[in-house]
C-alpha cells in the first residue's frame, strides 16, 4: 500500500526518506544545525498563521514576582546551579505569566479539552529566563520533527474546517508514546477548572550547572498553593453554556480582589548521563520521572499580583522561547527541547517582528539591559548597543562591546556518535506509564476518561477504532475493554491485531536496543471532582 502512495518531498523536491527523526549524533543526540529537512519543515510551520499564534492563541496573563528559597530540597541551591535567580534569597524577580489553551483559535472557549500552556518569563538580574511549558508533565511526541504533523492532525480538517476525532486518533495510532499524554488529556486533567488551580511543568529535560562546571539533569514544575481542581466533560459543558472565558475571568477577578495566586517552584534532579538502569530515557518528554525515586524538591515561590494594563501590549505581544536561559541553566539533548528552541523564537520574530525584544513586556529588566550589535529590521525604535554607536561589530581596537568573562570552570559535554536519524530504542515504557496512570486515577477520573475516548472512537473508521483499542488494551486490559464496550468495538478482533510495521511489540524495546526494564511509575491524580457549588460559582 505504501509503495503506491506519492512520495513525500521537501519544498525543494528532495525525497524525504525519514520523516520520523531529526539528524543527531547518536541515538540520544544532540541534534545538528545542518538539519535542513527539519528547519524547512518547522520554519514553514511557524508561519502558517497570521496574526495570532499558530498554537496557544487563546490566552490570558498576569504580572508578579518570584522568590528563591536558596535551597533545592535540603541542599544549598549552589550545589546544583550557579544561576543567581535560584540562589539569591530576599530578591523579588519580576515575572510575567501567560496561560493558554493550545489548539483553539483566539476566540475559542476556555472549557476546551486541551493541554494548557503555562509560560513564565522571569526578568532576572542576569537577563530573561523563559520557562515555557504546559499544565501536564508530559507531551505527545518526543522528536520535534513530528510537531507540525501532530498539530495538523489536531487542528481542524483543512477542507471541512472541523476538528475530527478520526484525525486525532489516526495520528495517535502510529505514535504509541502518545498514549500516556492521551490518558491524561482525555481524563478530567484535560480540562483544568481554572488557571489558579492548575499545575505547570517545563515538560522538557534541562540541565543545572554549578560553579564547578558539574551538570545535573532537571525537570521544572509549578505546584499551585490553591490546590488542583479539574472538570468532567459534563461540568465543562455546563460552564461553557454560560461563559466561554471563565478561566480568564477567574484569574482577573481573583487578582483584583487581592487573592493573589501562588505556586511553589519545584525541581526533580538526577545525575547527568544516559541512566540505563531506568526503564525510560530521562530525555524522553513523553515520560514522567517517578516521584518516589526523583521527588519534587522546593526551590522557590511565585506570586501573581497584578493584571495587565493593556491586554494586547502585554499578553498578546508577550513572546517566549525555550532557548532563553540564564547562566547556570543549560540545554539537555532532549530532541523536543532542541526543536522548540529554534521554533519558538523563530515564531516570535515572524509574528511580532525581528525587534520583539525591544517591547517593554519582553525586554529584560534595567539591571540586565540588552546591548547587542544587532541593527535595524522592522519596527526598530532604538539602538540597543553601548555608548559607542559607531562600532556595531566585535572585536574592535577602538571600543565597542566586549565579551563577558569566562566562568572559572565551565560545563563541557563529551559527544561521540555516528551522524544519522535515530528513533529512541527505549520504548518498553510507552505503554507502561499510560497503564500506570490509568490504574492510579480515582474511579470518577477513569469513568470520565473511558467515556471521552469511547465516544470519540464512535466517530472514527473501524481501522482506527480497532488499533486504538489494541493500544489501550496493552496499556491496561480494563482500559481497553471499557473503551471497546462504550464504542461498540469487537475487543477480540482488536486484540488479534499485530504490531504496526516497524514498531516494537508493547513492552519491548525497539530492535537493536540492549536495554530492558519495567518498574511502574508512582503517583496519581486522586483529586476530588469539582462540586456542584464550585461549578456554579465558576459560571
Structure overview:
Strands 2, 5, 6, 7, 8, 9, 10, 11, 12 and 13 form a 10-stranded antiparallel beta sheet that branches. α1 (36-46) packs across α9, α3 (147-154) packs antiparallel against α4 (165-173) and α11 (443-457) packs across α13 (477-487). The N and C termini lie far apart (51 Å). β6 and β7 (127-134) form a beta hairpin. The chain has helices at residues 36-46, 84-87, 147-154, 165-173, 179-185, 233-240, 246-257, 311-316, 335-351, 429-440, 443-457, 462-475, 477-487, 491-495, 532-538, and strands at residues 23-25, 59-68, 71-72, 75-76, 93-101, 116-124, 127-134, 200-201, 206-209, 215-224, 262-271, 297-306, 329-331, 419-421. Helices cover 27% and strands 16% of the residues. It has 539 residues and is of the alpha+beta class. The chain has one domain: Catalase core domain (Catalase HpII,  Chain A, domain 1), CATH 2.40.180.10. It has 15 helices and 14 strands. It is globular, with a radius of gyration of 23 Å.
